[in-house]
Every structure is written in C-alpha cells, then in structure tokens.
C-alpha cells in the first residue's frame, strides 16, 4: 500500500540504457539554476543522473508552494502536448549541482508512445502525483496545522533524500512553503514537538528522535495501515 510522497527518485532507473539510445543532450545545472524557468511552458524533459531539484508554484500575489522534489532516476517536469496556463506559474530549481539527460518534449512524447515499459512507468508515476494532489486537497487541507506538520514529517521519514527515517532534509521555510502555513504556526508546532522530545532541530534539517510518538499524531490517511 503506497502512501503519499513529496520526493521522487528511481522510478525510471531501469530505462537508463534506453534513454542513452535516444536523441538527447547532456546538461549540467548548478545549485540555484532554473531548470524550468518562470513564465514558460514545458519545453524540455530531463532524466536526472545526479543531484536534486524542487518544483514550486508561485501565486500571483507572491505566495509560493513547494509541490515536490526530484532526484536520481527521476524524469521531470513531465511531457504532454497541451500547454496548461498554470505551467507558467511553476518553476524547478536545482538544490545541488545536477547532471541530466535532456530531451525535447516532442522526442519524449514519441518515446512514451513507442516504448511500452516507459509508458507503464510514466502512468504509475503520474498516478503518484494524482495521489498526492488528492491527499493534499481532500484530506490534508482539513487537518489543523499541528497534524499537517506531523503528517509531513512522517511522510518524509518514509521517503526522503537522506534515505533515513530520522533525518529529514527540510528547513522551517521549506515546511511553510509545502504546507502553505505561515512561519509562526510552523515554529509553534515544531516547538511543541521539540518540547515533547519527538524531534531535535538542526540547521537546515530535523532529527526525529521518537518516530512512534510522531506516528501517533498523524492522521489515518498518512499511515500505511
């Protein structure tokens, strides 16, 4: 049973040799570079060889929401024939130096149609995005800020760049941008978890010291039960 995830990696690793056999360019991005720039539609699709990036949506009033993270073995930002208006409000930024294989949108769409394994993996990958969207809009939206935070930390403990259930690579700013909460509410909820001995705050990451107690605070939809 799959639970929601914000961090995607490894889904397309088995297709590495196939990707190399198709028309592509090798692209390197440095930390802070835009991979998907503001005010543009999807033009290129990338298979990540190394590094990690984050995709965010920016509201017209300046508010920002982090949507998800992608790392090694992932394909992003996607591929389709339509131009959706919301694409121009999205950006993808390198959180570290990244090496990628770059494909044109048309080439990757052709590959999707020709390769059954690619289309099957892509179908499952998009289903995970939809699952996250439904979880956030139909479930997480109705939780209070403390439960939202507990849910987020638990989900990252199960699926995160560090690969460790007690090492969460999120800053207070990241958490606020994912949950669309103000930093005061995030700080209060983190303080409560610290006071109860459930987490230990570090610079730019959070250590979970009592995963079972954190789990006890999470809503049912978040748990693999």
Written overview of the protein:
By secondary structure, this protein is an alpha+beta fold. Helices cover 36% and strands 24% of the residues. It has 7 helices and 12 strands. The strands form 3 sheets. Strands 1-6-5-8-3 form a 5-stranded mixed β-sheet. Strand 11 and strand 12 form a beta hairpin. It is globular and about 55 Å long. The N and C termini lie close together (8 Å). It holds the Pfam family HTH_Crp_2. This is Crp/Fnr family transcriptional regulator.
Strand line-up of the largest beta sheet: 1-6-5-8-3
CATH superfamily of the largest domain: Jelly Rolls
Task: Give the biggest beta sheet.
Answer: 5 strands, mixed
Q: Structural class, please? A: alpha+beta
Helix content: 25-40%
Secondary structure tally: strands: 12
- The CATH topology annotation of the largest domain reads as Jelly Rolls
Q: Report the radius of gyration as a whole number of Å.
A: 18 Å
Q: What is the string of SSEs from the N terminus onward?
A: EHEEEEEEEEHHHEHHEEH
CATH class group of the largest domain: Mainly Beta
* Rounded mean pLDDT score: 94
Low-confidence stretches: none
Organism: Faecalicatena faecalis
InterPro entries: cNMP-bd_dom (IPR000595), HTH_CRP (IPR012318)
Protein name: Crp/Fnr family transcriptional regulator
Pfam families: cNMP_binding, HTH_Crp_2
